[in-house]
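> run fold Proline-rich protein 1
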Amino acid sequence: YKPTLSPPVYTTPPPVYKPTLSPPVYEKSPSYSPPPPYVPKPTYSPPAKPYVPEILKAVDGVILCKNGYETYPIQGAKAKIVCSEPTAYGKSKEEVVYSDPTDAKGYFHVVLTHIKDIAHCRVKLYTSPVETCKNPTNVNKGVTGVPLSMYGYRYYADKNLNLFSVGPFYFTGPKAAPTPPKY
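> ok
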């Protein structure tokens, strides 16, 4: 007996799947366009306050000499204005302004430019150039000081000025009556 061999049957192997890559598709980037111009947002501003000029404050008065029954103005005498402005912690800062020397009629005038609150100011006698009339008296509070808060003032609209008038203040000669001692 002879075996018969059948002819071999060849089958094709199943195809191996290979994905086919399509060429990449690039998206177009957006074309350049300039940013919109800057427009500031409208801001609210309160209405401008009208200009109000600062009212000047000034003090004037007369300094005289009283020797016995004779009274005459002292030329070259000075007054001082002492202002004690309260600061923090209950303390006070003292500011002193001296008048220019008085004229031939004994008149002095002081403009208080940097004093904020005149209510804390007192006007006192300071010096006299007359040797025979150097002792300050407390007539009209020339020694203890006149508080400006007690005085009214005259307002001069044309000069925008509040004028406080004090005195008259008196110096006296060397034979002033001694002040009685305080007990």
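The CA atoms of residues 42 and 48 lie 17 Å apart.
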